[in-house]
Hints:
- It is a single chain.
- This protein is of the alpha/beta class.
- The strands form 2 sheets. It has a 5-stranded mixed beta sheet, sandwiched between helices.
- The chain contains 23 helices and 9 strands.
Amino acid sequence: MQTNFTAEQLTDPHVAESEKILRKCVHCGFCTATCPTYVTLGNELDSPRGRIYLIKDMLENGRAADAKVVTHIDRCLSCLACVTTCPSGVDYMHLVDHARANIEKTYKRPFMNRLTRAILAAVLPYPGRFRLALKLAKIGRPLQGLMRAPALKPFAAMLALAPKHIPAPSPFSLPAVHAAKAEKRGRVAILTGCAQPVLDPAINEAAIRLLTRLGIEVVAPAGEVCCGSLVHHMGREEQALASARANVDVWTREIEKGGLDAIIITASGCGTTIKDYGHMLRLDPAYSQKATGVAALAKDITEFLASLDLPANVPKGLTVTYHSACSMQHGQKITMAPKQLLKAAGFTVRDPAEGHLCCGSAGTYNIMQPDISAALKVRKVKNIEATKPDVIATGNIGCITQIATGTAIPILHTIELLDWAYGGDIPQKLRGFPLA
């Protein structure tokens, strides 16, 4: 793609990077075939190619974002299916990140939209606030049907997604060192997370139990905060970078204290962001090198387990349909390890049709774009249910929450099934459930 940025514009490192990305696009349109919003809406401007044109026009002309640009950029899930598909290597992830940051700086959103986004940014990254919000949702749930105005739809979506039962706080979410229960063969830190330990603390519990049984010491360090992905995808760069710096400091201390073989992440959305810390903090001389080191250590739990010698296993006799989260398959390029681990653990594993398409969760997308999200969920659930599984497995809490609202089939994190297969108790979600 030909660009016409001025020399002065290119002195801005963010603009210079975006210009290089734009020049790689050859207008081929392969991305449209795998873009969930284009497949759903059929609008060229809701495809990666269309958004690239909008971003180019906005940045090249040095103008503020307008309602048209914001509408179509907001509809992007950041699922990154287009990155997987693109034959030219267009780095759409960092391009749309720059566009969102530019929108945040130059565009004044309608009041209710600003309020919704501010509430999400002030609540979701903080486990205590999030837990309180979920408790308050019980009071607001009867009002859900009254929230039909477009500006109120996000609040109705929040209430619909809020679980009726909130798990009790888990001691595994507290800072601690979990000693290896077999001959020690490694030391890792684990990301506690923000939304996940409130919605489903059993995920990290399973990860820690399995790792320690395998001889891995697991550190849950003090001072860790949200990875920053939720606000990063809202264009709130300073808030996202502050979170990244805080975590880099925490994990660097652990590296210096006793060394780390990996930083284990059980939410693939968080993993995609943490693996990008080196890029996010590349312009910060105090953090660039440390952030690159931390990013290199970041591993999805299945990615780390695949590097270990696991014991032979007895088949469980269950059919598991594996839903590959977008942040796992497109963001981190981890496609085979989770399925191979499940098969080796004795499960029959099936793939749903259109596995490359997003389920519609995408961080806060199912709140901010509830109609598109709902259409994607229906499509995803239909494809999963067609495989007739006993259980659904995935590697991201957002996908678990989203898909669970559309099917009665139990959906668990992959690590919960692996923990069970390798000596742990049956997951709570499967107790009393009629399994084949």
